[in-house]
Design a protein that fits this description.
globular
Amino acid sequence: MSKVIGVVLLVLMAVCGQASAQSAEQLEQACARKDFVACNNLGLMYAEGEGVRQDKFKAVELYTKACDGGVARGCNNLGVMYAKGEGVRQDKFKAVELFTKACDGREALGCFNLGEMYNVGDGVRQDKVKAVELYTKSCDGGAALGCNNLGVRYAKGEGVRQDKVKAAELFTKACDGRNALGCSNLGLMYAKGDSVRQDMSKALAMFGKACDLKLQEGCNEYARLKNAGVR
């Protein structure tokens, strides 16, 4: 059976719904009127190639405009581009600076991404305690993936005193927020009876939810339990 796992990625997001809710033309016009949220959302369309021809350089330009205009999520998205070296020369130190600005602007994903940088020591000196602080801020700010990664830290006792009961609580919060890894990790705890009462039916339900959220690991565990006769 698998171990609890955290998500290791940097996250791009639109503001106030998906960027595709408005056409590129509408967003272009709004951005020109200094609607900096529109600039961010148009940047996401260019970054992902949704409704427009993919253009990472254009995305960087738009995220920069959004960030400079005070949109914290624009700073987060720009940080992702610098961290990955997409549309701009890779610069992990600049990415940390931008994630910090996003997090200071109460952008939960900025806190999550900054936590990732501290967790692995990327662009900043590794600091597991700082990572826990940032995952906490991310989770409290509504980022379900932050709750999952915080749960992993509590489960493993990394950067914080080990507390598997707290870990289960955080995985529950992550799963309720439709984070697939949170559901899968909670399923593992129910399957093993790890800090929660062993309940294979609940484990099956959690793995099923993870599978519905497109996590292959969840599908694999769901199939394994079904084949073992769990209902």
